[in-house]
Write a structure and sequence with these properties.
alpha+beta; 3-stranded antiparallel β-sheet; two-stranded antiparallel sheet; 5 strands; 28% helix
Length: 79
C-alpha cells in the first residue's frame, strides 16, 4: 500500500509509523541521520494552521514517541 503526499507517492517501504490519521516516513532526501516526516493522512489539510487541536495533540504524542525510538536505534540525541 502506498500513500500520497501532495503529488508524491510514498511507498510502503518508506513508511515507519502509521495510525488511522497519521503516517511517518523516511524521505528520499534526508537532511540528517534519523530524519523522518510525520504527516496527516487526510489531504484536505494543506497548512499547519488548519489542523484541528485533537490532531495536533496526536502529532505531538507521535513526535515524542518517534524521537525516542530514533534516539534509541541511532544512539543519538535529537534536539
Amino acid at each position: 500500500m502506498s500513500l500520497k503526499l501532495g503529488g508524491q507517492i510514498i511507498y510502503e517501504e518508506q513508511i515507519v509509523y502509521k495510525t488511522g490519521k497519521l503516517f511517518a516516513f523516511v524521505p528520499h532526501i534526508r537532511i540528517l541521520p534519523g530524519h523522518l516526516l510525520l504527516c496527516p493522512k487526510d489531504e484536505k489539510y494543506t497548512r499547519y494552521t488548519e489542523l484541528p487541536s485533537e490532531l495536533l495533540f496526536e502529532i505531538a504524542i507521535a513526535t515524542q514517541m518517534l524521537t525516542k525510538v530514533v534516539e534509541e536505534v541511532k544512539g543519538m540525541t535529537l534536539n
